[in-house]
Design a protein that fits this description.
The chain is α/β, with parallel strands linked by helices. It has helices spanning about 1-15, 80-90, 105-120, 140-150, 190-200, 215-220, 225-240, 240-245, 270; strands spanning about 40-45, 50-55, 65-70, 95, 130-140, 160, 175-180, 205-210, 260-265. It has one domain (about 40-270): 3-Layer(aba) Sandwich (Rossmann fold), CATH 3.40.50. It has nine helices and nine strands. The chain has a nine-stranded mixed sheet with strand order 1-2-4-3-5-6-7-8-9, with helices on both faces. α7 packs across α8 (about 240-245). The two termini are about 10 Å apart. Keywords: Signal.
Length: about 280
């Protein structure tokens, strides 16, 4: 086991990406990424952000990683409630931007400032319970593009771009990214998402195209993308070893799953990370 951990840290260092931090106290879910996690989600709607988080944060001394979320064009976080509650059930604190125009990630990035303040406020339920060293950016459609743009913030550790719009520059990414496309998406064509993945050859990046998926069926509820996006976030933000095995190593779980994915690709830097 020590040899495996050492090899993982070495490979991640070679790619220029910090090794994920272990989130002690957050329970394993096996490989049930698409199923609800062990926490009951809570929701708090604010003026600028909506927060989704576990009701019993820090019950076992654990600190919870953060996901900043960007919405698709014209909708607010409520449209993604099922997906964002799902992330909270897995132990994440989701800070969702209350904006229907999230492409440039201004409100998404200010969500990090908000959760930093709440973590330092003794009167807040978040006080001392936030893992500020592990923050991911995620979003759908225009918000998927926003998730890429949000990663210019050095506090962001990884990206999940779900069917992302085009107004971004993946060549500027400095953190690992998962690009999710839908096989039958007629709004953000898979070829466009694949081009973003190809442009991100300076980081560990993977491209997953969900078989049969359309734009709205996977975005609003998470659909079949709920599982892969949760697994990616659990690896990079929680160092979940089961999640690592889905994406990395010569026989990674998702790489060989032709029933779930119509196309799955890993770039050269991603293949350097051991499973």
């Amino acid at each position: 086991m020590a040899a495996v951990v050492t090899a993982a840290v070495t490979a991640l260092t070679l790619t220029g990406v910090a090794a994920p931090a272990r989130a002690d106290g957050i329970p394993s879910v096996g490989r049930n990424w698409a199923e609800s996690g062990p926490y009951t989600p809570e929701v708090s709607i604010g003026v600028v952000h909506t927060l989704y988080y576990p009701q019993t944060m820090g019950a076992h001394g654990e600190k919870h990683p953060v996901i900043i979320w960007g919405n698709g064009t014209g909708v607010l976080p409520g449209a993604y409630t099922l997906l964002l509650r799902h992330y909270a059930s897995h132990g994440f604190i989701v800070v969702a931007a209350n904006t229907p125009v999230s492409n440039f990630a201004i409100t998404m990035r200010s969500g990090i400032d908000l959760i930093e303040k709440l973590n330092a406020d003794p009167s807040s339920v978040f006080y001392g319970k936030v893992n500020l060293d592990r923050i991911g950016s995620a979003g759908h459609s225009q918000g998927g593009s926003g998730a890429i743009n949000a990663a210019v913030d050095p506090r962001v550790d990884t990206v999940v771009a779900i069917q992302p719009g085009p107004l971004n520059d993946p060549a500027q990414l400095h953190k690992p990214a998962l690009f999710l496309a839908g096989q039958f998406d007629a709004i953000v064509w898979p070829v466009l998402v694949k081009a973003m993945y190809n442009a991100a050859d300076q980081i560990p990046a993977e491209y997953a195209e969900l078989r049969g998926a359309t734009h709205f069926g996977t975005g609003i509820t998470g659909g079949d993308m709920r599982g892969p996006s949760t697994a990616w976030l659990r690896y990079w933000l929680m160092d979940d070893p089961n999640a690592r095995a889905e994406f990395f190593g010569p026989n990674c779980g998702f790489c060989t799953d032709s029933q779930q994915f119509s196309d799955f690709r890993r770039n050269a830097l991603a293949t350097q990370i051991p499973g």
